[in-house]
Amino acid sequence: MIEALKQKLTDEAEKLRFELNVTLPNEIRKAVELGDLRENSEYKAALERQQFVQARLGQLTKRLSKLSSIDESQIATDAVGMGSKVTVEDTQSKERERYHMIFGDAEDFDEGQVTMSSPIGRALLGKKIGELVLLKLPTITRKLKVVALVTIHDEPI
């Protein structure tokens, strides 16, 4: 899971580096050739895109650095941690919900994914099968019981 995420981010970073170093300089050069830069929308758009790409590259670099520092052997094999898929049951309604714990600053969420820094993520972190979880929400406090757990170590490679 971590390696796949690293690869995805590395691929995106490579595309952005190409755009920053090849595509955008060409667009800026062409816009400059058109003349008056004060009213040149192509020039302004290229500069804005260049700023965006630089900012996004900074974010990706920071995120890749964080991912590289994660040691999978330090993630619990019998408790909720990064990459875990956990099923909980509400003790009152008996409804079951399934959550997939993902990295803290993920941008693309699939249904059921929660970050470890979210309220539900913090409440579930470190819990084992059979343990009760108190999820304090603004209007109520929910009691959830961990009924199933698949850790990052149990996932097929």
List the helices and strands and how they pair.
Elements: H1 2-33, H2 41-68, E1 85-90, E2 96-102, E3 113-115, H3 119-124, E4 132-136, E5 141-150
Parallel strand pairs: 2-3
Antiparallel strand pairs: 1-2, 1-5, 4-5
Helix pairs in contact: 1-2
The fold-level CATH name of the largest domain is Chitinase A, domain 3
Indicate the CATH architecture of the largest domain: Roll
Mean pLDDT: 84
Q: Are there runs of 5+ residues with pLDDT below 50, and where?
A: none
Number of helices: 3
Shape, principal axes of CA atoms:
elongated
Q: What would you give as the CATH superfamily of the largest domain?
A: Transcription elongation factor, GreA/GreB, C-terminal domain
Radius of gyration: 22 Å
Helix content: 40-55%
Give the CATH level 1 class of the largest domain.
Alpha Beta
Terminal residue distance = 8 Å
Instruction: Note the main sheet.
Output: 5 strands, mixed
Number of strands: 5
Please state the structural category. Answer: alpha+beta
Sequence of secondary-structure elements: HHEEEHEE
Outline the structure in words:
The chain is of the alpha+beta class and 157 residues long. The protein has two domains: 2-70, Transcription elongation factor, GreA/GreB, N-terminal domain (Helix Hairpins, Orthogonal Bundle), CATH 1.10.287.180; 75-150, Chitinase A, domain 3 (Roll). The chain has three helices and five strands. It has helices spanning 2-33, 41-68, 119-124, and strands spanning 85-90, 96-102, 113-115, 132-136, 141-150. The N and C termini lie close together (8 Å).
